[in-house]
Amino acid sequence: MDTKKIQCYHCRQRLSIKTNETKVKCPGCKLLLEYSSSPSSYQQQKGFMQICPRGNFGCNIMKKIRNDEISPNKRSLNTKPFSLSSSSSRPSRRAVLCGVSYNKGKFRLKGTINDVRNMRDLLINSFKFQEEGIIVLTEEEKDEMYSPTKKNIQKALEWLVNDCRKGDSLVFYFSGHGLRQPDFNNDETDGFDETICPVDFLKEGMIIDNDINSIIVKPLKEGVTLHAIVDACHSGTILDLEYVYNKYQMTWEDNRPPSGARKATDGGLAICLSACQDNQLASDTSAFTGNTMNGVMTYVLAEIVNKHPGLSYGDLLDLIYERIEEVKKNDCLINTNFLRRFFKDKLSQKPTLSSSGRFEVYKKHFIL
């Protein structure tokens, strides 16, 4: 008889049950709880949640975990998008949004599409981005040019900054796996390069922070502003920006490469909001919606900006920290619930603000 692994919502006891069982007593807390054996009814379970599979990425490397169903709405999120090869007639506000689900691999993520939809809605409704100025790369897109492959992501990023001009506001958003690897160029203060994983990373490789910096940071001209929002593990310095904000000391720390390698813009400003520090994991939860998984940082960011438009970066960061702590105290972070004993402080998610130039975080307003 086939079995499923489940977890008690009350005491977090993990156990296996037969696929046709609908009621079971938890051996830990002795509660009698109901469980639906129908795959389509996971969100209606009473008392149990399905344990999400974890990919083996190697020693101390962990993927983000999501267990919601992919949205049945398959409508393309690219509305009359501009050609990736053309830089003419583009709006001054442009964005590239990537949500990678890894549907054909064992590292599957099932909620990144929710993050992309939330970010797209935020840009359009709160910051007046045109739909035509937003390129979305997900596996739900039928056109292969919008699949989040390594080649397509790099090409989209090149489109984003190509021929950028004074007054342009650019956004790069990524939701998916993030990893680390040893740095052999002596340009990382912690000795590791941070990476994002495209859908074909097992074949084509990851995109490392050095490459992201070269593609979308160095070309920024004076008067151009780029915001990167990265909801992935190990994403603290994913753009290799020269300054990292220390929230507790309220100062900018020098993150320039020990090797002296150039990481600066061409006069523009690059700002990055990352889901966690370089040595931490990003968390997901269904606590916000009750039935779908969302990246914690993405959901909280959109929630706060919609509720409090015009916040300063400092106030925004403070509110994000407070909201995440509130969720964590309620034991709603999927990673925190049953992985704390394995990863300890790495699950203490602390979103990170970095920039190509220092600024007054409580005076400068968060505007995309």
The SSE string, one letter per element, is EEEEEEHEHEEEHEHEEEEEEHHHE
Low-confidence stretches: 36-72, 335-347
Oligomer: single chain
Strand order of the largest sheet: 7-6-8-12-15-18-13-14
Query: What class would the helix/strand composition place it in?
Result: alpha+beta
Q: Roughly how many Å is the radius of gyration?
A: 21 Å
Cα shape: globular
Number of helices: 7
Q: Strand-residue fraction?
A: 15-25%
Mean pLDDT: 81
Could you give the count of β-strands?
Answer: 18
Q: What share of residues is helical?
A: 10-25%
Biggest beta-sheet profile: 8 strands, mixed
| Termini gap | 54 Å
In short:
The chain is 22% helix and 21% strand. By secondary structure, it is an alpha+beta fold.
Description:
The chain is an alpha+beta fold. It contains seven helices and 18 strands. The chain has helices at 112-127, 150-161, 201-204, 209-217, 296-307, 313-329, 334-343, and strands at 3-8, 14-18, 23-25, 32-34, 48-50, 93-99, 134-137, 169-175, 178-182, 192-196, 207-208, 225-231, 243-246, 251-254, 269-274, 284-285, 294-295, 352-355. An eight-stranded mixed beta sheet has the order 7-6-8-12-15-18-13-14, sandwiched between helices. The radius of gyration is 21 Å and the shape is globular. The chain starts with a strand and ends in a 13-residue tail after the last strand. Residues 36-72 and 335-347 have low confidence and may be disordered.
